[in-house]
Specification:
The complex is a heterodimer of chains A (185) and B (152). With 185 residues, chain A is mostly helical. Chain A has nine helices and no strands. Chain A folds into two domains: 91 residues, RNA polymerase sigma factor, region 2, helix turn helix motif (Rna Polymerase Sigma Factor, Chain: A, Orthogonal Bundle), CATH 1.10.1740; 76 residues, Arc Repressor Mutant, subunit A, CATH 1.10.10. Chain B is elongated, with a radius of gyration of 50 Å. Classes of the chains: A mainly alpha (185), B mainly alpha (152).
Amino acid sequence: MIFREVEDPDLIAKARRGDVEAYNLLVSRWEKRVFNYLLRLVSNREDALDVSQEVFLKAYQSLPKLDDPARFSGWLFRIAHNEAFSMLRRKRPETELAGEPRPADLNPRLLPMELSLAVETALGRLSPDQREAVLLKVYQGFKFEEMAEILECPVSTVKSRLYTALDLLKATLAPMQRHAVRGES
Amino acid sequence: MSCISPESKPDWKAYVLRELNPDASREAETHLAACSTCHEEVATLRLTLDTLSALREEEIPRRIAFVSDKVFEPHWWQRVFSPTFAAGALVAAAILIHGFVRPGQDQVDAAVTKAVSQVEARHTKEIQAMYELLDVRDKQVANMYRNAMLSQ
């Protein structure tokens, strides 16, 4: 097991005292995860980067309000969630945000692998709430309780969104994967 | 074996997502080993999760970094409670307290005078004792000389 020389709570403590370099180190540890989460939510690289910067700026300003540094990741993703949906509300009509399925509009050049593109498309067909539940659980590894805190909703709602999303993804992806496996054999 | 009713089925999504507690997970595995229907369902869920993991993670186009700015400057109380400042303040306070509580110059002079007089008195006593000793020895030498003369 590899131990970090400085743990996140140490960096958070330093950043709270105004140490910008400590905060930059903390950002470097989390920026890729936050960026990818936002990228799948807003489906645009420039927007995802802009929102990522907003997230880390807001996180820095709100660090004194973070009660438990050990729960930094959930707290950070809650800020990311709020910023992403705030941006989507500004940029898109309410009706579209409400959950109308839409294709992924990522540049296919960025996703050269066929399977990755298929997953991207399948995720793009989910509602924003369902997609976010998958992102937080499958790609970020949060527990149901943590997701409920990030999304500010009951655990039952989290499970409902995630389970519906998994059923939809299963229907889309599993047959394709089986076909691919058969094709290989 | 296959499931009698949907209610008797374990929560397979929670199972593959590792959200079941150890007891529930063991029960689910026992059921899974004997139920072909559930075995198929779990296999499909796992296949779906495996496929989802194929999504490529994107590199961030530009690194995010902040420079020290007004926005980042700490409040005065944050500076006060920083370790470096606190250590400096502690040393300064110690010097200040020492300045206040140390004895005045008059007290120091009196103590020195007293110590010097004690040393002088001790030396005087030692010299007196030495003279007395010499006097005794002189008398002894004189007596020896007188006796020697008389014996001749």
